[in-house]
Amino acid sequence: MKKIYSRPKYLKKVPMHYCPGCGHSIVTRLIAELIEEMDLAEKAICIPPAGCAVLTYNYLDIDSVESAHGRGGAMATAMKRILPDCLIFTYQGDGDLAAIGTAETIHAANRGERFTTIFINNAVYGMTGGQMAPTTLFNQKTTTSPFGRDMRREGAPIKISEMLALLDGVAYIERTTVNSVSAIKKTKKAIRKAFQIQMDDIGFSLVEVLSPCPTNWKMKPLDACKWIDEVMSKEYPLGVIKDITEKEGVKEAVNAD
Fold first, then answer.
1. pLDDT computed for residue 54 by the predictor
2. pLDDT band at 251 (very low <50, low <70, confident <90, very high)
3. In terms of Cα–Cα distance, which of 29, 27, 24 is closest to 13?
4. Across the chain, what does the average pLDDT equal?
5. Model pLDDT for residues 36-56, shown as the tens digit of each residue
6. 123-126: which pairs have CB atoms within 8 A and are 24 or more residues apart?
7. pLDDT value at 154 more than 70
8. What's residue 187's pLDDT?
9. Band of the pLDDT at 249, cuts 50, 70, 90?
10. pLDDT by residue (tens digit) across 68-80?
11. Which molecular function term from Gene Ontology is one that the record holds (predicted)?
12. Which residue from 147, 129, 125, 130 is spatially nearest to 138, judged by alpha carbons?
């Protein structure tokens, strides 16, 4: 019988705490696969702050340093400057990155800090009960926006990736999702490229992943996956938002599958 899947070497054999249908577990597995495939285990350091992402260090068998809420960008800056040869990446949700951590993220990206951010966008505060996040969509009902997000009352959803793409220090930003097999493959390719750009010392890189949150969206997992295609990706279009690697003439390895 042909073996088509093995547990990644750097994914610990422990139960995950994520809710059924959550995208965090998929992205965590992809990171573990890439660290093994790119032979970066001895150099990789994960920085997970608060939110559902906080327990990532329980699953990735690499060095990790937990930062205070929203301070992933600041801590990653320090870690990368002290250890420039290491792969430093933050693993942050939308509540952490797009709310309390906005300043750290924007200024680190503007300075072109050589680390990578994996940005999980599920449009709510997942860990604390599904409150409205900066990324909550118009008309989306949450526990703190029971009538749906309204422009006059709560303002517009913040498009972090488009904002950061305007900054000169940013080398690469792509928005993906994990709601289908093909989408998962694209997400893995995007994270690989972001990691390679960092190791090639080009600039700040970020992959935003639209992630299903069936529990707080109050949907079945399959319906949550469909909602990403039918609703969420209309507000947050998928694809490459910024990529300077062609202009910079990066090695062919950057674009390798």
1. 85
2. low
3. 29
4. 93
5. 999 999 999 999 988 888 889
6. 123/94, 123/157, 123/213, 123/217, 123/232, 124/94, 124/95, 124/213, 124/216, 124/217, 125/51, 125/95, 126/22, 126/51, 126/52, 126/93, 126/95, 126/213, 126/215, 126/216
7. yes
8. 98
9. low
10. 999 999 999 999 9
11. thiamine pyrophosphate binding
12. 147
Intra-chain end-to-end CA distance of the chain, in Å: 26
CA atoms within 13 A on the CB side of 42: 2
The span from the CA of 96 to the CA of 72, in Å, is 9
Cβ-based neighbours of 96, under 8 Å, separated by 6 or more: 49, 50, 51, 53, 69, 70, 72
3-class SS letters over the chain: CCCCCCCCCCECCCCCCCCCCCCHHHHHHHHHHHHHHCCCCCCEEEECCCCHHHHHHHCECCEECCCCCCCHHHHHHHHHHHCCCCEEEEEEEHHHHHHHCHHHHHHHHHCCCCCEEEEEECCEECCCCCEECCCCCECCCECCECCCECHHHHCCCCCHHHHHHCCCCEEEEEEEECCCHHHHHHHHHHHHHHHHHHHCCCCEEEEEEECCCHHHHCCCHHHHHHHHHHHHHHHCCCEEEEECHHHHCCCHHHHCC
* Paired sense of beta strands 87-93 and 131-132, if any: unpaired
Residue 2 has pLDDT above 90, yes or no: no
